[in-house]
Amino acid sequence: MLAEMAPDVDDAERVDQIRVLEELKAAAAAAQARASVDLDVSQRHAQAAAGVPAARRGIGVGAQVALARRESPHTGGRHLGLAKALVLEMPHTHAALTSGAISEWRATLLVRESACLTRADRATFDEQMAGDVATLTALGDRHLVAQAKKLAYALDPAQVVARARRAETERTVTVRPAPDTMTYLTALLPVAQGVAAYAALTRDADTRRSQGESRTRGQVMADTLVERLTGQAAAEKVPLEVGLIMTGPSLLADDDEPAHVPGYGPVPAGWARDLVRGRLDDDAGVWVRRLFHAPGAGELTQLDSRARLAPAGLARFVTARDRTCRTPWCDAPIRHQDHITPWADGGATTADNLQGLCEACNHSKQAPGWQSERRAGPDRRHTVATRTPTGHEYLSHAPPLVDPPPAAAAAPPPSSAPPTAPLRPIEVYPAVVNCAETLVETRFAAALAAA
């Protein structure tokens, strides 16, 4: 119905439509919050009936919310926490969201700033901040947060101070992809340490610039950060220890098939060649491991083990195949090699019966009612069906390491076919060849010559 909104209206009516749609989005978010809380209550009752200990009840509910919203489990868990705070502890804020007076983001700000308060103090906070909708809607985001912080501190200053102390224990460093083969390295630090680190980089950059350094201030700061963290004399000389995945023709010739950096994603073949060749020119260590994939499907062939835990080689294999957590829309780094058919139920420790999962998704899968099974996938790609306790089913396909050839492509002449079984090499993890790390030793030279 929304897609059929009349386009032949004047601009004043278009502005009115935007306002009404914004209010509809807020009302939908409030309804989602109510449904999420109802799901959580129902699932906890079901888990209690199944004998799940009280401390573990509720596990997997955030993951179900995430799958329904087509978001990561981490985001789903945040939404469930937001929903429980709004529905169970902040009725005025939830009512304002339901009426469309505030957006989901502004409701999130109020929940965030009151998170350290007791339930009774939070009720007071909710009434004073959201009881008067006219006053609430007149505030911008910055003033809203300032008012919320001030009120939270007035209600319980000790808890606000304790919250700040707890925040220091959450200091960490993360990395995430940025456009154009760049990346964001982010440090969450106590404010004094963060400001001091930034000031040190700034002073060093300003000193070098005053001495005639041609790089920009930002470039000097970034290079200095890398040099101090890695101990290298120059930022560009760091040893190459990223898991670069690329085809033999892309590495050794001028093929344009993109390479893949685990934890980052696709990168241009030319950039990957320059990276490897630059390290060779600098006499830096570059290591190569060899895996094979089936032509056409672009999927790695499998390895197996009789052990319950995947050995290192098989674990690397599964990680290279799956790249990120196999739960749909998760994309978190792989931490566990999970048995699709559980080991206790006779599931084998093979690449076919393993999937890479993040820690949170693997733990969610242990809750009652979750099931996984192998399915036949498109182009023979490794496919897993995950069924939640509510009976909803989600499919996950392993990404192809290389794009399969077009369906209409002509078959190569017999003389160009590999002399043995049709295996093509994938060059995995940069370096001078280390045969001890070879995962499939036979036929490599012949297949490489024919590729």
TrEMBL record:
Residues 401-419 have a biased composition (Pro residues). It holds the Pfam family HNH. CDD domains: HNHc. InterPro entries: HNH, HNH_nuc. Residues 372-382 have a biased composition (Basic and acidic residues). Keywords: Endonuclease, Hydrolase, Nuclease. Residues 313-363 form the HNH nuclease domain. Residues 365-419 are annotated as: Disordered. GO terms for molecular function: endonuclease activity. This is HNH endonuclease. It comes from Georgenia faecalis.
